[in-house]
Amino acid sequence: MKNIIETKYGKIAGVDHDSYLTYFGIPYAKAPVGELRFEAPQEAEAYDGILTADHFREKAIQQELGNLELWGKEFYQNPEYNVQASEDCLYLNIWTPKSEDSKNCPVAVWIHGGAFKNGYASEMEFDGRVYAERGIILVTIAYRCNLFGFLPTPGEGKRTNLGLRDQLQALKWVKENIASFGGNPDNITLFGQSAGAMSALFLANSPYSEGLFCKAIFQSGAGYRSGVGELLDKESAEQVYSQLLQAAGCESLQELKKIPAMELYNIFDGLPRMQEIGILAPIIDNDIVPLSTDDSISQGKMLKLPYMMGANKDDLWMDISTAEEPNGELWEGTCRLGTELEKQGCPVYLYYFAHNLPGNGEGAFHSAELWYTFGTLDRSWRPMTDEDYSLSKEMIDCWASFMKSGNPNADGTDKWGSWPENYRTFK
Fold first, then answer.
1. CA 272 to CA 23: how far, in whole Å?
2. CB 24 within 8 A of CB 53
3. Of 201, 206, 203, residue with least CA distance to 223
4. What is the pLDDT of residue 232?
5. Per-residue H/E/C for 31-82
């Protein structure tokens, strides 16, 4: 089996597994270091020789996540899946089908969550094997987080929303090069969870995204007129920039660029309010984010695509109770978004993840579905049962069907009606 790929930028050698191939740590942009810190991502440089893509590369600068309440134990305490933090973090990872005749495959591009503050593309719950074995190429992308990805610098042009710009640059790389891996550049699904879903929602409302993907999945991060994913106002964001300058003893952006990355992060992390969720997030910049998502959606500017979206029973902003019907701000905002998009002619499929995970009483918490949609239950500390594995297969089949055709009803079944006629519960 040949596993050397010729891309626009050079040759890449992957790793041959029993049923799929992997290509990890591919640069999709120049390293955003030195003078490129706080700058829009630059196109990757061509190279000679063969890039050996056999391991995950660095994650964005961030705090270590092992001590996070709930999620630390859930996803971040296994050192086998951890990587070093670095400003040099703009890499992507690819899982492809192994068959010699695998051509024109559907492609799915994953954006990780982490409140725009942290998270990375190689977390232990993410894996593309199950999708590659279903004939789908899966790509996970890294992007700059916290101040390195979302610190707005007043009057600095395209230096806003750098994390979103990284995501767009990765999508452009995939669009240009994925055919070399056997992928169909005209059949790309963008999907993400939490801040990754919010990112996908922002990109689906950005004028820069036209033609880069043709379907989208929002997992616990979409909403309309709900406050979920609400943009930080520019004035407040600029105050954070001013506070950082003062705390760092700097008078200009150029001086901020000279401070070692982790030292600057620690200064930022020590500022008042920096621990709040959403203190740095995408802002309206009249460029990549020209409008709030609510205004963009109401004005019919969101891309006209098939959409799949949902939330978990015990998710963020949910009214956790024993009620049989889904409820809470996140779910209701997702329903409003689905209803509005359906009115505008988009196929919309809603899901509700109501399965209580075994092992403790956290229920169907925020991010719980990731073990199931990536087929990585065997990596979890939880005592998973046959019921869990069966549910995971059911969900993967639905996700894969949507990635292939824009319809999640696997094997021609019609259990999942288009919204607002129906939603599907996974329990």
1. 41
2. yes
3. 201
4. 64
5. CCCHHHCCCCCCECCCCCCEEECECCCCECCCCCCCCCCCHHHHHCCCHHHC
Helix (H, G, I), strand (E, B) or coil at 295: helix
pLDDT class of 320 with cuts at 50, 70, 90: low
The secondary element (H helix, E strand) that includes residue 241 is helix 234-248
Q: Quick one: pLDDT at residue 1?
A: 41
What is the predicted pLDDT for the residue at 276? 65
Residues whose CB falls within 8 Å of the CB of residue 89, separated by 6 or more in sequence, listed in order: 32, 57, 58, 59, 60, 61, 142, 143, 144
- Check: pTM over 0.85? Answer yes or no: yes
pLDDT digits (tens, 9 = 90+) for 102-118: 789 999 999 999 999 99
Element at 356 (helix H, strand E): none
The residue type found at 244 is L
Residues sharing a CB contact under 8 Å with residue 409, sequence separation 6 or more, in sequence order: 398, 401, 415, 416
The H or E element that residue 238 is part of is: helix 234-248
Cα-flanking dihedrals φ and ψ of residue 98, to 5°? -95, -20
Are 122 and 140 contacting, i.e. CB atoms less than 8 angstroms apart?
yes
Average pLDDT value over all residues in the chain: 92
HSE on the CB side for 133, CA within 13 Å?
12
Dihedral of the alpha carbons of 55, 176, 165, 88, in degrees to the nearest 10: 30
